[in-house]
Every structure is written in C-alpha cells, then in structure tokens.
Amino acid sequence: MCTTLESNAAALIQSGRIFGENDMTTGTRIRKYRDLAGLSQRELEKLTDISQSSIARLERDERIAKPYELSALALALGCLDSNLIENHPVRERLRYAARTTPLTTPNVEPVKDHLFYLLEMDTYLARALSTLTSA
C-alpha cells in the first residue's frame, strides 16, 4: 500500500511538476525522475535495455537521448516522454493550444505527445547538425 509521500511523488512524476523543471536539461530531468522512482542506474538499465554507461552519459548531458531511448526511459520511470524533454520554444504554445481546445474535441493527449516527440527529434537533429558543422 502506498504511503502519502509515495502517492505525492507518483502524482508529481505523472504531472511532470518538479521544482525548477523549466530550466532543467533532458539529462537533469532523467536523473530527477530516476531518483524519484528510487532506481539506480543499474536497475534502470535492466528495465530499459539501455546500458548503465549510456544512462550516465545521458544524465550528464554528454550525449543526446535518442527518441526510442526517451520512450523506454519514460515507460520505466512512469512518466510521459515529454516530461523528460527539456523545454523547446514551441512547447509552451502547444500546451496553450491544447488547453484552449473546446471540450467537444476528441482526446488531444496522443496528438500532444506525438508533437512533443517530433519537437525532441527536431532538437536532436539540430544538435547533431551543429556538432557536425563545428567539427
């Protein structure tokens, strides 16, 4: 049976509301959610099939998480992919649009999640391109 503290932590994980989240990098978010879930990097490795060394590099922002890695991490940590992604300039506009949609509209959550995924892919490709051009 969950304690009140565990319930509150689970609610925070599901909602994505963690103090200072707006200025957190993807790596910091992964680390924060892993800590909240009470998992070590080795335990997360077993749940995701992502090596412990890769998880460590992701958490230190030494490399960019691939979209399939974000999905695996989010599933293991009990949150949405979008909770792990650092803020993107268009992200807040999408949230605003989703909130202002009339109630008669079908469930927009899957569309929102897919758009967040595409934004992460855009960020990933932009960073990869800047790394290639700076080399």
UniProtKB/TrEMBL annotation:
The organism's place on the tree of life at top rank: Bacteria
InterPro entries reported for this sequence: Cro/C1-type_HTH, Lambda_DNA-bd_dom_sf
Record domain HTH cro/C1-type: where: 30-84
Molecular functions per Gene Ontology: DNA binding
Cited Gene3D superfamilies: lambda repressor-like DNA-binding domains
Record Pfam families: HTH_3
Coiled coil residues, start to end: none
SMART domains: HTH_XRE
This protein's name: XRE family transcriptional regulator
Species: Cryobacterium lactosi
